Amino acid sequence: MNTVNTEKQFKDALKECRALFEKKLHDYSASWRILRPSSLTDQLFIKAKRIRSLEIKKEARINEGMRPEFIALINYGIIGLIQLEKGFVDEIDINTKEALALYDHYAQDALDLMTKKNHDYDEAWRSMRLSSYTDFILTKIQRIKELEDIHGEAIASEGIDSNLMDIINYAVFGVIRLSE
Predict the structure, then answer these.
(1) What is the DSSP letter of 88?
(2) Are 145 and 46 in contact (CB under 8 A)?
(3) How far apart are CA 41 and CA 145, in angstroms?
(4) Averaged over 53-69, what is the pLDDT?
(5) CA-based max dimension of the chain
(6) Taking each helix axis from N to C terminus, what angle separates 37-57 and 66-86, rounded to the nearest 10 degrees?
């Protein structure tokens, strides 16, 4: 596979995620603006743990597979980046247009990062196991929890934003792989 195809697949996956995000904005408005960082991290954790559970058990009792959970990780990852920028609130303070503009900004940032890393790593993600994406996502979530516990004051590591970007990118790879 070449990088051009990867970029198209990545954009297609993000387009699908954005469409769902927009539908949920219609239904719930930007209710996620109320989420504090730790609650958002726990939501990411729940989604990643369900994927891992399905990988191990090979059975789902709820009629949703892993792909919707990877999509949720992408959308909650982008929400996490928005919350890092804007902070949490007690009442919804942005409209649909503003929420979508923020979504698009961070989706583009994720695409830009993937493009750079994919160049350097030579499409290595295509040879990885799907379960590795899950484990890496869970590791990134654990790192976010640790950084939250020290109020983001990292000495030698990436910040919360970098970990969220990696979660988004691994989750997009999961969506792509489960679509092929």
Answers:
(1) -
(2) no
(3) 7
(4) 86
(5) 46
(6) 160
